[in-house]
Amino acid sequence: MTDRLITHLRHVDLAVPDLARQRDFFTGAWGLTAEHGDTGISFLAAEGSPEQYVVRLRRAAEKRIDLIAFGAATPADVDALALGLATAGVPLVGEPGALRTPGGGYGFRFFDNEGRTVEISADVAVRDHRRIEEGESVPVRLSHVVVNSADPEGTVAFYRRHLGFRLSDTLVHPRMGEMMWFLRINSWHHSMAVARGPHPSLHHASFELRGLDEYMRGTGRLLRAGVEKIWGPGRHLAGNNTFSYFLDPHGNTVEYTTELEHVDEDTWHPHLYDFSRPEVSDQWGTANAMNEFVAARSFNDPDAGLFTAPPV
Asked: Where does the VOC domain lie (predicted)?
């Protein structure tokens, strides 16, 4: 396994046909803030996060994941990661250099094993952010991103070998075998997870709220607004975090969560959790049952952007 030079998750970038509708959803009911924008593109920040933005939206003919972005500590670490990937034959979109997105910085992009575009950057300017107050049910930060994979074993191996991700836990099923792998890049239980699916796509993007009360208030606000709920509210066993899953206007699953577990990396040993046991999916027993309907919605549409870098 490579040395872990990635420090954290920065943002997830989505392309959608109806940019205005998607932006209105994320800045309205969902609670993000539009910080920057240009014709055909919007950068959305979380009020509690030092990241310049946690979601980037771009108008496009087909919906896709434009990229998933991670941070590194220094430009030297960015260069080391780029060199290691190139030496291993991983296709780079471009060599490391100055970024022209909000906050600047130094970074590069590459394609992972299934063709998703991934960005790694350092020296991005810190955004002026604030403490989220008690009762304020807006996202504090982007918690994690989960992707569907037609080759999940290969995808997990790619991120562990080339990027230093570590395995926290795995969900298994008595008939279907291993189904979801939780990967960490710091002490958070997971910043990324890989789910077995019929095709590469976004499974869900998760946003952390201040605490349980804020999480429930946010969940209630979305329900009152008529946003379609897929699953929740409940609390997972793997990661010990709460969950409420909703659909955005383009059919992507987005999650409100809180209290994601911090692990002691010196002593942690990955678990195999049998998610046919109801308490594994939901410790509380308050969520609707995980069934074929929930699973099918999380499969999403096949990603239209594989091995094609976004234009910006």
From this structure: 8-123, 141-259
